Amino acid sequence: MEKSARPRTALNECVKVVVRCRPLSDREKNEGFEEVVKVWPERGAVQVYNPKGQDKMFTYDAAYDASADTQTMYDEMVRPLVASVLDGFNGCVFAYGQTGTGKTHTMEGTADHEGIIPRAFRHIWAHIENSASPDVTHLVSCSYIELYLEDVRDLLSKDCKKLTIRGQELNGFYIPEMTSVVCKSAAEMVRVMRAGNRNRAAGRTDMNEHSSRSHAVFLVTVETAHRKTNRIRVGKLNLVDLAGSERQRKTGASAERLREASRINQALSSLGNVISALAENSPHVPYRDSKLTRILQDSLGGNSKTIMIANIGPASYNYDETITTLRYAHRAKAIKNKPVRNEDPKDAKLREYQAEIERLRALIEQRKLHDRKPRKLPRPRAPAAPQDNSEEETVSIENENMLAESSIEQEKKQTEELEAQIQALEERLVQGGGGGKELLNNLNEAQLVLQQRRHEITQRKQREVEMQQRIELEEETTASVTSTFATLQQEVDHKTQRLKKCLSKYACLREEMVEQREAHDGERREHEALQAALIAELRRRLLVADSFVPDAGRPAVLRARYNEDTDTWELRDHSGVEPLSERPVAGPGRRRPTSAAALAAREPRQRAENVLDLAPLPLPSTTRTYTPPRHNHAQSVPTPTKKEPEMETVSVARKSARAARPSTAHQRLGTAGVR
Ligand SMILES: Nc1ncnc2c1ncn2[C@@H]1O[C@H](COP(=O)(O)OP(=O)(O)OP(=O)(O)O)[C@@H](O)[C@H]1O
Q1: pTM of this prediction?
Q2: Ligand 1 in reach of 105 Cβ (< 6 A)
């Protein structure tokens, strides 16, 4: 994720929310679970049967039941978003939901059912092949990262190296060191995705045979340069498969799974807080709370067009989780983003490549010109040279010739290398309309027409859903205004009915409030249990530290400083001064400073001087230490051995020092009110 320039002007656009309900699994069927979810695709609504009370109804931009395939979903919702990315906007599709509800099935798909990610690849390459003008150049690159146990890992690097998120909340976060692979076809992108998937953390839980234990982000960057306008547009597409939220008691979690689950839930709860803050227009949005929310900052409330896919399962035993997911999704509908077309951003790779190609071409031209110039001939021979000298001269001329030949050879080789470099760079760039074959063009045209038709149908369907939702809303609010009554009894009946409706709505809301409170209490209990476990672990470590770390090591602990960028504790430099970012320079005519004081000095003048920071020498004492008068107990008390009083003094001194020493970290924690 490269740092991108901030948008100039932007129109608000709400996050689009889609719900997808998977079919009952074989296991759920065998165990006799009922279906409690009914999807109304034509109204974009989801109804959940409540075993304890009133059914619940939620409406979204679109809703898909078990019979809907990913193709329909892609054409109706995702296709317009990917088209915007190809036009230079940022886009994000993320799948959210309880574990085992079909997030990976929706995003990546399986061997038989292609998911959204490979479909997006094919869409991008169909567009590039169809872009008719050879004046258009494209560069497509992709990166793949995962967030596992709060570590951001590069899935495309050999050793899955850990990455650091940089930046500030105000200017956006970015990941500078992640691997970016330039691709030349959809098949190549699929290969890259599979290579990354092999490195992804997955495991088995009671809820899902192949559960993703990490949040994965596949990032596609499409750069498009138009030669005529000399403009470059950069669209970035984030395809996110989140790990599933899960109740720890349901997943049959081992210690390792429990640790993963608590981290997954922590990140998802931060995501929920960000969604709530954005939906309520809160002045502070807690993006900083987790790495997941930092990565998704632009997608939620920033410069991006975003689709949230909420995956749910239909089984009755997942009622609570389904309701929680639907509530989250409902809240996300209120998030407003500010998408802006990214035109000529500073970090466009295409511009860099074009400049490099130009530079290499100029270099080759220069070399060619240089080669055409007449070469310096070997020195003419001396007229009458004695026999023994002429042999020497022949050797030297031969040497010169050999040198000249080798330098020509070397230059030729360098020119060839430059040409190879140009070719390699040009191969990365894809020219529009490069197909050339009539058959392929006809096929592409037919595809284009088909896409156009699909798009029109989708838009019509969306309008219908919106109309239906609006009609239902208006029916409710205007019924009492428009109706006229023949008799008083009719009016009373009508108003009684309305009152009943209002009362049932009120009961529904109360029920919801109770449920929310219960869910909140449950979550709080889980957090408290986790907190208690962490505090117990902390106490154990503090006990070890208090018992085994010598006093001399304690000041080091005080020098520890938390680095927010790397999320680690680091030991501060001994001097207590920040280490210098550059090597110190010497003053004019002086040696480079090496003393500790010069290296740590803040003033440039002091840094240039090689001042030594010497502690003052101890002065000889001018007073005498008080010694108490000696009592002569020689007769009554047996004379103590010489060593005894000394030992006693030492042990008393030790005791008093121990009493004066600040309490142990363990005790400090106890007094800090941690129970
Ligand atoms: N729409 C669907 N149609 C048919 N099968 C589905 C559908 N959605 C999910 N499944 C099946 O349900 C199972 C679980 O799906 P998947 O692994 O995608 O869940 P997940 O939400 O990604 O889980 P986790 O969060 O644990 O990774 C898989 O066997 C998958 O094939």
Answers
A1: 0.67
A2: yes
